[in-house]
Amino acid sequence: MNKLKNDTFLRALLRQPTEHTPIWLMRQAGRYLPEYCETRRRAGNFMNLCKNPRMACEVTLQPLARYDLDAAILFSDILTVPDAMGLGLYFAEGEGPKFERPLREEWEIRNLAAPDPGVELRYVMDAVAEIRRALDNSVPLIGFSGSPFTLACYMIEGGASDDFRTIKSMLYDRPDLLHHVLAVNAEAVTAYLNAQIECGAQAVMIFDTWGGTLSQRAYKEFSLAYMQRIVEGLTREHGGARIPSIVFTKGGGQWLEDITSIGCDAVGLDWTTDIGAARRRVGDKVALQGNLDPMTLFAQPDKIAQEACAILDAFGPGSGHVFNLGHGISQFTPPEHVAALVNAVHEHSRKLRQT
């Protein structure tokens, strides 16, 4: 296999020396880019875009054509897995994702089964392979999935929720049912991520978007334990290369040591956690990813650079840091402000390496 032209991202995840701090952005291919909006218009709707490997490849590459990013991330959606389980995913205009058949009845939950990623999710695997070919070893490709608990939130609530009343009622009243959903999800996610690795993903990330809504005890039992199950089942090496894993729980900074202990290579941080303090807490056990407040990108470019430099300074010298936002980029972000961020991270981190 040909060598990557820029492997800075992978080296940082493995805490190896790098010439600069690598940067990529959660949701970097998205609605803030006019070229993405044009491709989505041609696709007709979001799911058509996700399920067309050629178009998914096109939008994955769009931010890399604009910015000097250090990684690409597969364009897809975390809800492709429950959609493949037969729950009927659709996107209501202005309301976000919804399921036609949310899991409410015990028989529905007992009948839940993990999909075959090579069959029901073949379109994702085809997109991964096509993106890898198109990248031509310029930068690494990140594969991803939602966490078992985050997927369960949508599967049980039927869509987005303000208070997660339905899933939390199940958690406290019928934990056996929720554990069954989570076990099936963990099996599905492990197979899904390993299939992405087989098709060319060079790092994988688990997005635990809603784990931070749980109590400490519930987080460990209903979210972290299942992410640990996945991490333990991941393919660690493929094609002679190490495949690093990243775990990100939004709102999970208070559980940093617990997340670090599950065996992942890197932990994502949202903007509410000080990255310098986080580094002191985890030592050299994992790399850290993050953690600029996405709203910073609405400030003027000099202020964006100032905030980025403050995060780099807080992390301090040495490797083991992947710069990112603390969550996905807003659709209203001015594209030129992203360029200011990427340039500031590369320039300032190079200077830090020289001091």
What would you call the shape? globular
Let me know the largest β-sheet: 7 strands, parallel
Radius of gyration, whole Å: 19 Å
Q: Could you tell me the strand content as a percent range?
A: 5-15%
CATH-defined architecture = Alpha-Beta Barrel
The portion of residues assigned to helices is: 40-55%
Low-confidence stretches: none
User: Cα distance, first to last residue?
Assistant: 36 Å
Which series of helices and strands comes N to C?
A: HHHHEHEEHHEHHHEHEEEHEHEHEH
Keywords:
355 residues; TIM Barrel; two-stranded antiparallel ribbon; 15 helices; 13% strand; globular
How do the helices and strands line up, and which of them pair or pack?
Elements: H1 8-13, H2 34-43, H3 46-50, H4 53-66, E1 72-73, H5 80-87, E2 89-92, E3 96-99, H6 106-110, H7 122-135, E4 141-146, H8 148-157, H9 165-173, H10 175-199, E5 203-208, H11 216-233, E6 237-238, E7 241-242, E8 245-249, H12 256-260, E9 266-268, H13 275-282, E10 287-292, H14 301-315, E11 321-325, H15 335-354
Parallel strand pairs: 1-4, 4-5, 5-8, 8-9, 9-10, 10-11
Antiparallel strand pairs: 2-3, 6-7
Helix pairs in contact: 2-4, 4-7, 8-10, 9-10, 10-11, 13-14, 14-15
Written overview of the protein:
There is one protein chain. The protein has helices spanning 8-13, 34-43, 46-50, 53-66, 80-87, 106-110, 122-135, 148-157, 165-173, 175-199, 216-233, 256-260, 275-282, 301-315, 335-354, and strands at 72-73, 89-92, 96-99, 141-146, 203-208, 237-238, 241-242, 245-249, 266-268, 287-292, 321-325. Helix 8 (148-157) packs across helix 10 (175-199) and helix 13 (275-282) runs parallel beside helix 14 (301-315). Helices cover 48% and strands 13% of the residues. It has a single domain (8-354), classed as TIM Barrel. The protein has 15 helices and eleven strands. The chain has 355 residues and is an alpha/beta fold. It is globular. Strands 1-4-5-8-9-10-11 form a seven-stranded parallel sheet. Strands 2-3 form a two-stranded antiparallel ribbon.
